[in-house]
Amino acid sequence: MGWFIRSTKKTNKRTGKAARQTQSKTKPPRDPDQTARMLRRTGMIAGALALVVGLYFGQNWLQKQVATSQAAMPQVVLVDLPVWMRPAATEEITRTVAATVDPDPLNQQSLQVAADALSQNAWIENVQRITRGYDGRVEVHATYRTPVAVIRAADGFHLVDVSATKLPGVYAFSQLEALGLPVITGVRQAPPAEGWTWMGEDARAGLALAMMIVNEPVARQVKAIDVTNYAARRDRRKPQIKLLTVLDRDSNPFNNPGVGWGRPVGEEGIYEPAAQQKMRMLRRVHRQYGSIDAGGQIVDVFADTPMIHPAPLVQYTSGRD
Question: Which structural domain range is residue 118 located in?
Fold first, then answer.
């Protein structure tokens, strides 16, 4: 009967093997400090990676924004721009339009805003229209004020148009030759603001005479139109307007070589010959003497015949500001 008794040795082997397998699958607990260090390193790496990626995509976005902004700036074309317009004035007008026109082609109201802004520019007499083409190009159609003379004031020389509107800029004595425009001196009124009219009657009288002689062959001999004695306010015995053949900062216009013209154009009345007759006398003197001042003298044309008087012996200089 002994063979019914089971061996306990085999059972013990199986039990021991299972115990060993259970012990081998059980992991020891992790160190909390080590886990924290690993998390910190992982966070630092992820942050650095995010920073690099952000800088890359941010730079690309910024470049695209700048390119888009530059592309959105409209191309401005000033139609029928006068050839005499200086680059500085042209750039100012162009910047005004570019800054006020909305890049959105559907915003037509911004074109009117640009026109209103340009109407404040003294170079522009009126804005006819501002249009935008299908290609985004903005065209400005305007009438520009043309400088026709220079008026001398205490602070320098100022450009004016045919209506005596003051144009931008103040010029020095040394720049007059380059401007190539008739100079009106002796005006009493101070310069108005840019775009406003010089209201003095003396300025208007000088401007009217400048417009009359501008196309005459003798015009280049006229260095200035002096209205110091306009309306005989200085001396009733002297002509009201004089054409100076020498312009000097310190000289007396009454003694300058030149032409005693007399009363303003259109105001001769019964006292003086008409302006056209005065001009014929001036041409006659020029043909005879080679100059309208008869070689450095004083010529009066406000009587029926030219009168020539020797000019005082004064040394004239070109003058500098």
Answer: 76-144
